[in-house]
Design a protein that fits this description.
heterotrimer, A mainly alpha (352), B mainly alpha (334), C alpha+beta (366), B: 334 residues, mainly alpha, MetI-like fold, 2 domains, 15 helices, 73% helix, flat, C: 366 residues, alpha+beta, Rossmann fold, OB fold (Dihydrolipoamide Acetyltransferase, E2P), five-stranded antiparallel beta sheet, 20 strands, 34% strand
């Protein structure tokens, strides 16, 4: 090894250790706090304990037990129900988003010239037309008092879909370019801060009795994250040559058969990476769960937030313990699919 | 038997026969058009279901002066009809626009840092070295820590008697007791640090994917021609990575605009709005000030602004798609 | 221009020995081919000369200057890869000029040199096109131009024509030879196609399993192969091999076929060599198809009786596959030759072109 090489290796190690060290320190802090006894983490302590002197599992104990009664209430200190909730909701939402998104991605990849290229004035204009057309109906429905019930909302929505289609056709008559783009609309979903749509979503959810249910959360999470799935999976599907689909069809396979038996297996890796990201997105969500759950289904982030109450005081230790537990599912998932991660995330930008 | 006749034909013929097939089965999945529709229809329906009602509700409420405290159900909001008053308020609301500006500032700084760190790390991790796997796994962990916890941990971190100050004290040899979260500038810095910590792993992954995917042959050719590492970096690696860098920046930028959890837990927008981003602002208006109609107007304004930004920001993402479409039609120059 | 000398070159990849004790002298300014089947170590050898691989043992000298520790970019070597590896995000002109650009040559000079190279390769009309969109044939020319521009004293080409279509390949062979003659660089060319090697090279190094089999001019490797491997690898259709052993009968030395009862006389010189051998090991008689003369009748007592196995018309000539005892041999006949399968024909073995190989080692007995 030449001198330049040795220099290089040393430099690399130094840099890696420094940077990774910096990134690991907060993680370490959380982990160490999870094992510290109350005396060491409570804010009364004047000194900082870099390493827990009396490591204990008390925090885990606190956070997981003390489950009183059958129905969970937000100011109780057991985290088990929230763990259950997080798992069910995240897995469900991930599956939902994957299903919806993968199908749409395949459709967009193979059968559509839609590239998401929509001028903003068309997008906004169309929305404006829709709003203007539907607003009177909204007031009417409200006057009739039916808007607060699920059937009112449903009929209103169906009407809206019809009107939207009509507007689309009308626009197409006067404007020569694209008048609507599924890809653009899907991406739009990701652009809005959730807070911007939470008010009507809360209202809608309560009308459909979806508040504080696991399926209510699954639906909203799925809808908010499926654009990510479409985005990622479309680039994976684009990398599979169309000839393979056609070869399968020529061999007698049906369209669905070609998709499921030929194309899907080829994007397995991409599917795994996408699943991991969507899972992490769902698992980490705080605001939506905060607003849409009350008693029975708070997820881990919501529960963590409630662990500070005037009676108990700041609960650094137990919070850290729960935080540590909450890291496990994404990490396990990540480890299972890690070999797919580095190969996949090019979004179709690098030609092989 | 008829069914087999349809399915064994090449696609062009199938479409022609679709008319006949349709008479026998309504949803003939072997008709390309039905198949394609069945793929995108669920997504389209979900989109419309989710957009139409909330969108119109939001507009409806924003045109009134209703709040939950005022009386009755939101459905009765028409009793408080106010036309564009809320929107006028939004335009004059300094706090709103400041929050918007602050959001973009934080996004710009954070995403740039994440990108530089991610790219640098990707270079370090390009080749194998002892213990690479371990460092790699450690590097991915921040992404997997729930922001609700991470925000809390960083809150502890930046306390005046917290570990960060303790470390700095050790390094500079004097006691260092800055109250990070109590001063405007330092609170902003703290929040940016937390964001960067959480999301650099994502940029790192994307950059690494890009680097690993670079054609090795061309690198060796450049070596043979006498190029040094920096020459290879400047003339080959960077230009080849350009598309993926742009995509990564756009994606991360779009996600960063929504930042909420970290700030809520660390500063709740404080001290006194110094770190108030647009999401925090809307949250406060809706749930602390309970001015729902105003919040709805603010939300609609954000929607409009983001749509405009989206249509420009998404252009670079479509470039590879357009190239792909073009190349599959023409063939590669033979 | 530099002569290349390899001394005891050895390369191991873990347990696998890719190149074993290679000692070779490539004369300055000449076109040499490294020929052999897949896995014979030719590409590894090439990579070691270029500096892309470090030898496990042995040394490489360019004009007596030891190159083992000189990094690949600094050896003054031009390299053309098997799949060209041109920079797909640059134009053709940028590709070609790259070598000069990284040496900080000024723009005007670069432009001039690029033009010269483009003229030499006849690609001046493509200079501004994006290199990634070219056809395979044009890419190859760009790859050549790119490595030529820095006037390297040594040129290494790793199966550069294997991806081209047949017609273009023939054309490029001529072009490459012409360029090499004109510029006079030392060229080493790796290929598994013996026709290519024979047509272009001044010297051929035949390798198998990491061992050099023979190094010589095309004439030498064709007419005086050193062992059965070289004899078999070079020439199409392949040389005929018949197992036999040496016997003295009727006061003459004969090679007698194992799998039949044909025999051919041995000339005196080789007779002596054969009789000096201590054992009576198995021998292999080698003769090229074009040196087997076909007769429809036994015009002379030396002719051997064969039956026709099948006839393969190839256009300009016909290859006739014949059964000699239980062996099959091939002979070349004029294009119009026709003979019925299983008919009896006669062949004459031209003694001047007969090769005798040792049955165990495969080495020629000369």
């Amino acid at each position: 090894m030449s001198k330049a090489n040795i220099w290089r290796t040393v430099l690399r190690y130094v840099l890696v250790i420094i940077v990774v060290g910096m990134f690991t320190f907060p993680t370490y802090w959380m982990v160490s706090m999870a094992f510290k006894p109350k005396g060491e983490w409570s804010s009364a302590a004047g000194t900082i304990y870099w390493v827990p002197e009396n490591p204990t599992l008390d925090n885990f104990d606190t956070v997981l037990t003390e489950y009183q009664g059958k129905f969970f209430r937000a100011n109780q200190s057991s985290a088990l129900p929230s763990i259950r909730s997080s798992i069910i909701v995240s897995v469900g939402a991930t599956l939902f988003a994957l299903l919806l998104g993968t199908l749409a991605a395949y459709g967009l990849s193979r059968f559509s010239m839609d590239t998401g290229d929509l001028p903003w004035y068309i997008a906004l204009g169309r929305m404006a037309l829709l709003i203007i057309a539907m607003l009177p109906f909204m007031v009417l429905w409200a006057r009739l008092g039916i808007i607060r019930y699920w059937y009112g909302i449903l009929t209103f929505t169906l009407l809206g879909i019809g009107v939207d289609q009509a507007i689309g056709r009308l626009l197409a008559r006067f404007y020569k370019g694209p008048t609507g783009s599924l890809a653009f609309s899907i991406l739009q979903l990701r652009m809005f801060p959730p807070m911007a749509i939470m008010i009507p979503v809360m209202l809608m959810w309560s009308a459909f009795k979806l508040v504080d249910t696991w399926y209510g959360l699954v639906i909203i999470y799925g809808v908010v994250t499926f654009p990510f799935v479409v985005w990622l999976m479309k680039s994976f599907f684009d990398e599979v040559p169309r000839e393979l689909d056609e070869a399968a069809i020529v061999d007698g396979s049906s369209n669905w058969g070609a998709f499921i038996k030929v194309v899907l297996p080829l994007v397995k890796g991409g599917l795994a990476s996408t699943a991991l990201f969507v899972f992490i997105l769902n698992w980490s969500d705080f605001l939506v769960a905060l607003l849409l759950t009350t008693r029975y289904w708070p997820t881990i982030p919501v529960f963590l937030n409630t662990l500070v109450s005037s009676e108990i005081g700041a609960q650094h230790g137990p919070k850290a313990a729960l935080g540590l537990l909450a890291v496990i599912p994404p990490v396990v998932f990540g480890l299972m699919i890690q070999r797919y991660l580095v190969r996949g995330l090019t979004f179709g930008a690098i030609k092989k | 038997m008829q069914r087999n006749a349809v399915t064994s034909l090449p696609r062009e013929k199938q479409a022609g026969q679709a008319g006949y097939a349709r008479r026998r089965r309504f949803l003939d999945m072997n008709d390309v058009r039905v198949f394609a529709a069945s793929l995108t229809m669920p997504a389209q329906i979900v989109l419309l279901l989710i957009i139409i009602f909330p969108l119109l509700t939001e507009v409806y409420i924003s045109l009134t002066a209703w709040t939950p405290t005022r009386g009755g159900d939101w459905t009765q909001a028409y009793q408080f009809w106010d036309w564009g008053h809320n929107y006028a308020l939004v335009f004059q609301d300094l706090a709103f626009w400041q929050a918007l500006g602050r959001t973009f500032l934080i996004v710009a700084v954070a995403v740039t840092l994440e990108f530089l760190l991610g790219l640098g790390l990707a270079f370090l991790f390009m080749d194998d070295f002892f213990g690479k796997r371990v460092f790699y796994a450690l590097m991915l962990v921040p992404m997997m820590i729930v922001p609700a916890v991470a925000g809390y941990v960083f809150w502890l971190f930046f306390q005046s008697n917290g570990p960060l100050n303790a470390i700095i004290s050790l390094v500079i040899g004097r006691p260092f007791e800055l109250t990070w979260l109590a001063t405007d500038l330092t609170a902003m810095i703290a929040v940016i640090i937390a964001e960067v910590w959480q999301w650099t792993p994502l940029m790192f992954l994307i950059m690494l994917s890009g680097l690993v995917g670079l054609p090795e042959d061309q690198m060796r050719a450049a070596t043979m021609l006498g190029a040094s590492f920096w020459q290879k970096f400047r003339y080959l690696m960077l230009p080849m990575m350009k598309p993926i860098i742009i995509i990564a920046l756009v994606i991360r930028g779009m996600e960063a605009v929504k930042i909420f959890d970290m700030i809520y837990l660390m500063t709740t927008g404080g001290p006194a709005q110094a770190t108030e981003t647009i999401s925090i602002y809307m949250y406060k208006v809706a749930f602390q000030q309970v001015r729902w109609s105003y919040a709805a107007a603010a939300a609609m304004t954000i929607l409009v602004i983001m749509t405009i930004i989206a249509s420009y920001a998404l252009r670079p993402l479509q470039a590879p798609q357009r190239q792909l479409a073009a190349s599959t039609e023409i063939g590669s120059g033979e | 221009m530099a002569g290349i000398r390899l001394e005891g070159l050895r390369k191991e990849f873990g347990h696998v020995v890719a190149v074993k004790e290679l000692t070779l002298n490539f004369p300055d300014g000449k076109f040499a081919a490294l020929l052999g089947p897949s896995g014979c170590g030719k590409t590894t050898t090439m990579n070691m000369i270029a500096g892309l691989e470090t030898p496990t043992a042995g040394a490489i000298y360019f004009d007596d200057r030891r190159m083992n520790d000189v990094p690949p970019g600094k050896r003054g070597v031009g390299f053309v890869f098997q799949n060209y590896a041109i920079f797909t995000h640059m134009t053709v002109a940028e590709n070609i000029g790259f070598g000069l650009k990284i040496r900080h040559v000024d723009r005007a000079t670069i432009e001039k040199e690029v033009k010269k190279v483009a003229e030499l390769l006849q690609i001046t009309d493509m200079l501004d096109l994006n290199a990634g969109r070219l056809s395979v044939n044009d890419m190859q020319k760009v790859a050549l131009g790119r490595s030529m521009i820095t006037r390297p004293r040594i040129f290494l080409l790793d199966e550069p024509f294997s991806n081209l279509d047949a017609a273009f390949r023939a054309y490029m062979r001529g072009e490459l030879k012409r360029i090499q003659r004109e510029i006079g660089q030392t060229m080493i060319y790796v290929t598994h196609d013996q026709v290519e090697a024979m047509s272009m090279a001044d010297n051929i190094a035949v390798m198998d399993f990491g061992v050099l089999q023979q190094f010589g001019s095309p004439d030498e490797v064709y007419n005086r192969p050193v062992n059965t491997f070289v004899a078999n690898f070079i020439g199409s259709p392949n040389m005929n091999f018949v197992k036999c052993s040496y016997r003295v009968e009727d006061g003459q030395g004969w090679l007698v076929q194992h799998n039949g009862n044909a025999r051919v006389p041995v000339d005196d010189r080789r007779r002596r060599l054969l009789e000096q051998r201590s054992d009576n090991a198995e021998l292999i008689l080698g003769i090229r198809p074009e040196h087997l003369h076909l007769h429809s009748q036994q015009d002379s007592p030396d002719l051997l009786s064969v039956t026709v196995h099948f006839v393969e018309p190839l256009g300009p000539k016909t290859v006739v596959h014949l059964r000699l005892g239980r062996d099959i041999v091939r002979a070349i006949a004029p294009a119009a030759y026709r003979a019925a399968t299983a008919s009896v024909q006669w062949i004459g073995v031209d003694p001047a072109f007969m090769h005798i190989f040792d049955g165990n080692s495969g080495l020629v007995i000369r």
